Amino acid sequence: MTGAQAERSWFGQPPGLTILFLTNMWEQFSYFGMRALLVYYMTRQLMLGQGQASFVYGAYTACAYFTPIVGGVVADRWLGRRRAVTIGASVMAAGHFMMAFEPLFYLALATIALGNGLFLPSLPSQINDLYAPGDPRRGWAYNVYYVGINIGGFLAPLICGTLGEIYGWHYGFGAAGIGMFAGLAIYLLGQKHLPSEQVAPIVVQDGMTVSAGNNRQLWLVLAAVGLCVTIFRGAYEQVGNTVALWAGNGVDRSVGDVAIPMTWFQSLNPLLVMLLTPPLLALWRRQAAAGRDGAPARRMAQGALLVGLAYVLLALVAWQAGERQAAWLWLALFFLIFTVGELFILPSGLGLFARLAPPRLGATTVAAWYLTIFAGSLSAGLVGTLWSHMAHGSYFVLLAALACLAAILLRLLDPAIRRIDRNWTDK
After folding, report:
1. Are 14 and 138 in contact (CB under 8 A)?
2. Could you count the other beta carbons within 10 Å of the beta carbon of residue 39?
3. Is the pLDDT of residue 315 over 90?
């Protein structure tokens, strides 16, 4: 199947994107469902201290994004991407069900991280192969794919979080495992719409064979982008960590006589992704048609700045509230600004890494993107340990500073990324 195929489906994209979209949606449902409960489960059920729980949270998310480095190589060289997705999804489902048993807690986290290593780079690396070279739809495919991430992320706290808070943590973890099995079933049933596992041809430029070994400039640019995203993630990942703790204790969640469950606020971000993506895509299409700059580095820098602005808002709210609880509407406004920034930076970064992947190294290059998430998640865990040692307003200023630093560095990288992007996107 190629990008020239006339059949269309989701948002005018090839039908294979729908299969990848839905598979990813259910995998993200399982991941975010477990993540929505994780900090609360550790502090309220396992009785871990805040600092230890934050570090375990950061270490787990870091490992979940480190294993794809090995998994991407295994998929490209031995298993193939389809088989890697199938094995990875099965292992992750087993890990989610293991979370229902307290003695298996750390083993369950390790099992999920290992399965994720095979699954995560092998799924989105198939997107490029759905399109012919130069197909303009490829540029928007990653934003559509990103919506799938956030539909799963939206449903997860509402279903898994509610089950965990009301009926018991283990019911929430069990629902996450069921979601993982649903994603695996969709992927297996939709195989005919996915790209074949054919070996891609070697590309020759200026008389030289294009391979991982002689593209030093490409890898240096990707490494520089990865460093920027690592810094950004130190602030971004606090949404499921210290921001969640602040929502539980520092925010008045009452609406009349009813209190909004803590985990529901984590659904605001993915809900806003779903609502904001279509108008943003329409805006970017109009800008591209008018010849206005849509360079990925500039867009990513703008997104990091918006996330920094969102944390500045939280700092002001925390200072204003003092010892009192802040109104929950401020938290909702934070998520609105935060989400717009996220849509500018994260899908653009994933798309950049996938588009620039050398032939036969698709899963490995996408895994390099997830390595930035690994490093960023680990740094976020360390940054999270400062929550108990700083005033909340000052802590949110620190997060804003991290996001703004990433924005400055990305803007400085813009010329180099433009050169690489021009040379590689038409390969």
Report:
1. no
2. 23
3. yes
> Looking at domain 12-189+213-424, what is its CATH homologous superfamily?
MFS general substrate transporter like domains (1.20.1250.20)
Question: Residue 27: its pLDDT value, please?
Answer: 92
Tokens of 410: 């990305």
Of 399, 94, 273, residue with least CA distance to 281: 273
Between CA 382 and CA 97 the distance in angstroms is 28
Please check whether residue 369 is in contact with residue 347, taking contact to mean a CB–CB distance below 8 angstroms: no
Amino acid making up residue 214: N
pTM: 0.75
- The Cα 116–Cα 145 span in angstroms is 18
Distance CA 291, CA 31 (A): 39
Please state, in angstroms and rounded to a whole number, the distance separating the CA atoms of residues 313 and 315.
5
Place of tokens 């409960």: 37
Residue 150: closest CA among 277, 323, 271, 4: 271
Collapse the DSSP code of 146 into the 3-class scheme (helix H, G, I; strand E, B; otherwise coil) and give the result: helix
Q: Which two tokens stand for residue 415?
A: 């010329």
The pLDDT of residue 231: 94
Q: What is the pLDDT of residue 139?
A: 67
> Which residues are CB-contacts of 254 (< 8 A; sequence separation ≥ 6)?
260, 328
